[in-house]
Design a protein that fits this description.
- The chain contains 2 helices and no strands.
- With 72 residues, it is an all-alpha fold.
Length: 72
Amino acid sequence: MHEFTLDPEALVCHYSEGTVIGPELKKLFPQGFEKPYNAAILVYNYKYDPEENTSNPNAPVTFLGAVSCDLD
């Protein structure tokens, strides 16, 4: 949990690989989020196919995006 923020980098910076993921999210949201968030769920090593993405506006979480992250 984090204080509510519009800044994607601030939301994930404390997570593992957050210093890599944060700048990539900032590229997706250069003006910041449209509404504030206070938590993030990060899923690593997931093969994401945007063609198979189906949005559910009633879902309890908001999908923000997928970014590459080199996990050694």
